[in-house]
Amino acid sequence: MEKESKFSPAVTAIILFGVISLLGDAVYEGARSANSQYFNLLSVSATQVGLFFGIGEFIGYALRLAAGIFSDRTGRYWLFIFLGYGMLVVVPLMGFTMNWNILIILIMMERIGKALRSPSKDTIISAVAQNQVGVGFAFGLQEALDQIGALVGPLIFTIVFFITGRNELTQYQLGYKALIIPFVLLMIFLIFAYKKIEKENLIKEVHVKEYKEEQLKPTFWIYTAFTFFATLGFLNFSVIGYHLKAEGIFSDGNITLLYALAMGIDAITALLFGKIYDNMKSKTGIKTSGLLTLLVIPFLSVVLPIFTLSNSKALVIIGMIVFGIIMGVHETIMRSAIADIVPFYKRGTGYGVFNTAYGLALLGGSSLMGFLYDKDMIVTIITIAILFEMIALLLYYKMNKMVKINS
After folding, report:
1. Relative orientation angle of helices 218-232 and 378-406, to the nearest 10 degrees
2. pLDDT digits over 170-205, tens only?
3. pLDDT for 7-42, tens place per residue?
4. Which among 72, 186, 56 has a CA at the least distance from the CA of 120?
5. What pLDDT does residue 130 have?
6. Which of 69, 206, 303, 378 is the most buried (most CB within 10 A)?
């Protein structure tokens, strides 16, 4: 009996999506670990880098609202997943140009692909996991496998730098081109997953009647506001990477290695907090009780810029560990919570709204902090991080109060 539960269709589906995410992360996280330094070599300023990546993040999250709504209305989740993952082909193409205008377009296209696939993927995972293996476990395992890919991706660049003994434009381009390997593997696994999951009939079909009748509750909107301000005060790696390169604190290879370390911490955190999230729900019998784990986000986000924008190698390393913990909670608990506060037939829409707010916060935070960094206003960056996270805490307590009343 024990063996059967371990290899149940639900667990198999979650692992398959995890492998797909692993390969996807190897592609785009590999690129993200090198993008800031690459743009620095192309003489693009920190303000421009912060703005461009902020816009890219916003597009990638804002379009999830439309993708989520259409996936709910049509039920054609696989179409959005295939289109979204297929667009990752633009990442290896970054190794064929040094024109930063073209590079920006390619980065935007990669983010659009992420927008198309994410709501459908999250909806399927939450539907399979709910009442079977636990959404916290499902998203925790998903994120852990994601981060194995996010660890491998940056290491591709590190290996290129190590083998060549150089870290110039040619080496960066070679690193981007090498990402074609995980992309091809990704598409092969995606085709296999589609055939396997469809055969097991694990995905519910959307009924338009239920879609129209169910509504997003006030708790969801307070939760979305909490997410917005907690993310607004979160220091993006685009600014951190730029700082480490500009100040010469670490070599290019060590910067990507440091990012890989953070992704490894992210993976461990995701599994740990996913399990804690499910256990809290199980002990209380209340499906929203796991929201308490979100409290770690504002407190850790406040100290992040203090460590990562210092000139001390030791403090930066500690800061990147904190960065990994925050990302693990973001990717696991924030996504799990949507499944517990949003009805199934509005879940694609819920993930879309949530991700739009998340992307808008990344745009605002990344642009503002990049601008302040160019002005050498690091103390101001720390101050606004504290302000935004205090607002997030107030919204958390408001949300927690609403949840207790409705329980």
Report:
1. 160
2. 888 898 999 999 999 999 989 887 887 777 666 555
3. 577 777 788 888 998 999 899 888 887 887 788 888
4. 72
5. 67
6. 206
User: Rounded distance, CA 274 to CA 51, Å?
Assistant: 33
Question: What predicted TM-score, i.e. pTM, was given to this entire model?
Answer: 0.72
Cα–Cα distance measured from residue 89 to residue 368, given in angstroms and rounded to the nearest whole number: 30
Tell me which residue of 29, 64, 7, 77 sits closest to 256, measured CA to CA: 29
CA distances from 66 to 112, 131, 337 (A): 11, 28, 21
Residue 75 near residue 206, CB atoms below 8 Å: yes
DSSP state of 310: S
CA–CA distance, 193 with 196 (Å, rounded to integer): 5
Residue given tokens 């730029």 in the structure block: 242
With a cut of 90, say whether residue 4 has pLDDT above it: no
- Give me the half-sphere count of Cα atoms (radius 13 Å) on the Cβ side of residue 193: 26
Tokens 């480490």 correspond to 244
Q: Are 31 and 336 in contact (CB under 8 A)?
A: no
Q: What is the residue whose two structure tokens read 């604190």?
A: 249
* Structure-token match 């398959």, residue found: 16
